[in-house]
Amino acid sequence: MARITEWKPEDPAFWEKEGKKHAKRNLYISIPTLMLAFIVWQIWSIVAVRLNDIGFQFTAEQLFTLAAVPGLVGASLRFIYTFAVGKFGGRNWVVFSTGILAIPALGIGFAVQNPDTPYWVMLTLAALCGLGGGNFSSALANISFFFPKKEKGTALGINGGLGNMGVSVVQFVTPLIITIGTFSFIGGEAQVLPDGSQIWLQNAAFFWVGPIILMTIIAWFGMDNLPTSKQSVSDQFVIVKRKHTWIMTWLYVATFGSFIGYAAAFPLLLKSQFPEYVSLAFLGAFLAAAFRPFGGWLSDKFGGALVTTIVLFMMGAGALSVIYFTGQQLFIGFIISFLVLFIAAGMGSGSTFQMIPIIFPVKEAAPVLGFTAAFAAYGSFFIPKLFGWSVANTGTPITALYFFIAFYAVSIVINWYYYQRKNAEVRIMGKQEDEVSEKAAS
Question: Per-domain residue ranges for the chain?
């Protein structure tokens, strides 16, 4: 593939003739590689649910920790991955960061076959799954360089949303693939459940090794390094001095941090509250990921600040409803309320990411996207841990939800003050508002 020597996406002629086809090809390859990263990152959210059923003897808090540790490592790696595209090139980093995911996938496949595997080994493998968590920052930073400002919200929403779909894919596919001995030739005896049925929990990890290798090869031959994306780490690091970097980080923690944290905790929450419905755990992550592009599209049209305010209200209302229906032990109300919470968090992930390229110049927007995503990813550690603490100390997850509601309330005020009110420092309006303003000015 010919090397790209110039990149001018804001030039309409260049975009239509040359830029669009390259941008879309890179986006279409980025989506499945990012999806695989999320699959590996969140694999413990579903594997941890079955460990004690096949002979392991971990406490509830240990299981929540296994689901949470990939989030802690992944979030920390995102700070490194944020600056990797500018340092090494988009294609180069996607190839490396995708290929390395095969290591934890193979490790988990062998480890779960032996109930005597020490807990520290499981923790190490959980930490290695954090490699997948880092990819989001580099993938979004990379794709942001390819598209003109007017299309960034939609492009980032599609890449992030369909990539996020990996969480629901792993939670939906795992219960199906562990029921067949597909990879028994590698050394996989079946595990016997308490009811006498058999599963092959190793399939939950082995199944993804082939796709990881395939997408690594496709990324090598199909993606591009852009000349405009090259920046030194010191040039990129100037973003930490920007006030709005930290404000947008707070807002993205409220939205994406909630999504990924709830996704990691939801299977274990279902098992503790309504164990007969644990097979529905994938629904939350699926809806959140599906609605993320919709949040980006709405933000392009009506303004990210307005959409963010609306979804934060929805999240607060959803959390209140979860509290009520958990106390009443009404499953239908519980699941609907949680799904509303997931949908709003997904839309908010798209709306906040649409705001960043508007607030920052192109060279700063890419590292800011990665930087905010790094902090938000800590939600996948702290939310499961907070739920685990709440269940262990109060016997219910309700206490944790009150913390989240307070966080959403503060976020609404911050978003309104800096980006939505009439005299905001950076008032973010959608296309429709811009058209009305232009007519009024003329």
Answer: 12-432
d(CA 323, CA 330) in angstroms, rounded, equals 11
Q: CB of 78 within 8 A of CB of 370?
A: yes
**Exposed (0-12), middle (13-18) or buried (19+): which is 333, by Cβ within 10 Å?**
middle
Do the Cβ atoms of 256 and 349 come closer than 8 Å?
yes
As a whole number of angstroms, the distance between CA 366 and CA 144 comes to 6
User: Can you tell me the distance from the alpha carbon of 144 to that of 152, in angstroms, rounded to the nearest whole number?
Assistant: 6
Count Cβ atoms within 10 A of the Cβ of residue 262 and give its class: 0-12 exposed, 13-18 middle, 19 or more buried: buried
Residue of 202, 200, 95, 187 lying closest to 138 (CA atoms): 95
Query: In terms of Cα–Cα distance, which of 139, 193, 146 is closest to 166?
Result: 139
| CA–CA separation, 309 and 120 (whole Å) | 42
Q: How does pLDDT run across 263-321, given as a tens digit for each residue?
A: 877 887 788 788 888 888 888 888 988 898 889 889 888 889 999 999 999 999 999 99
CB-based contact 259:165 (threshold 8 Å): no
Instruction: Please name the residues in contact with 178: beta carbons below 8 A apart, sequence gap of 6 or more.
Output: 50, 199, 200, 201, 203, 204
Is the Cβ–Cβ distance between 170 and 43 less than 8 Å? yes
- The 10s digit of each residue's pLDDT in 326-370 is 888 899 999 999 999 999 999 998 899 889 888 988 778 878 877
Nearest to 186 by CA among 263, 80, 109: 109
The CA-atom distances, in angstroms, between 279 and each of 47, 171, 200 are 13, 8, 17
Distance CA 248, CA 114 (A): 44
Of 245, 237, 221, 279, give the one whose Cα is nearest residue 1.
221
Q: Superfamily assignment of 12-432 in CATH?
A: MFS general substrate transporter like domains (1.20.1250.20)
DSSP state of 286: H
Residue 402 identity (one-letter amino acid): Y
Q: What does the DSSP 8-state code read for residue 11?
A: S
3: part of which helix (H) or strand (E)?
none
pLDDT at residue 92 greater than cutoff 90: yes
- DSSP string over 378-389: THHHHHHHHHHH
C-beta atoms surrounding 438 within 10 Å: 9
